[in-house]
Write a structure and sequence with these properties.
Distance between the termini: 37 Å
CATH topology: Four Helix Bundle (Hemerythrin (Met), subunit A)
CATH architecture: Up-down Bundle
Shape: globular
Number of strands: 0
Radius of gyration: 17 Å
Largest sheet: none
Number of domains: 1
Strand content: under 5%
């Protein structure tokens, strides 16, 4: 089986995360910040490659899964060093679980074809518009990078939680339907 280029980028990002976290304690805070930025920019590159070369539903699922592992990996690292609040970590984990649970059931119900639940209006803008993705990705990268500089301010954690849950509201509503 030949792997698509975008999937190779996703797997490279995962390997990069594990390498980074292994050596992070020996690096200067600003080198760690630079490495976080490299990993998040690679995610943007991954999306560009997938769009240009024709991504697949498997690749999309893989990209989301790798994104979750990277986010939670960095956040767990910061939690271990007490730079993030435990409640924040649990709420981010719960939000990701709920959204992924809905996506998984949609995938099963649609016969293996990933169908986005948000296709119009405010829901589409909140969840899948470029500004929404840019704001959420920017907040996530800022929060991750800040953790390498010291304690992440509670207000930044709260802003990220609010925006994440706002983006997830339609999926959370769908989750209630499945339960």
């Amino acid at each position: 089986m030949v792997m698509k280029a975008s999937n190779l980028v996703s797997l490279s990002r995962l390997a990069f995360l594990f390498f980074h976290l292994l050596v992070a304690s020996r690096l200067s805070p600003w080198v760690n910040v630079a490495l976080v930025i490299v990993n998040y920019v690679a995610d943007v590159f991954d999306g560009i490659v997938a769009r240009r070369r024709g991504g697949t539903s498997y690749g999309e699922f893989m990209d989301i899964s790798v994104d979750r592992v990277i986010t939670l990996g960095y956040f767990a690292y910061h939690l271990y060093f007490q730079r993030l609040n435990l409640a924040f970590f649990v709420l981010v984990f719960a939000r990701n679980f709920m959204v992924d649970y809905v996506a998984h059931f949609n995938l099963i119900l649609k016969g293996g074809k990933q169908k986005h639940t948000l296709t119009q209006g405010v829901a589409k803008w909140l969840y899948s518009s470029k500004p929404s993705k840019l704001i959420n990705g920017g907040l996530q990268a800022t929060l991750t990078a800040w953790g390498f500089l010291g304690q992440v301010p509670l207000v930044l954690q709260l802003v990220f939680l609010v925006t994440s849950y706002l983006r997830a509201l339609p999926d959370i509503r769908k989750l209630a339907h499945y339960i």
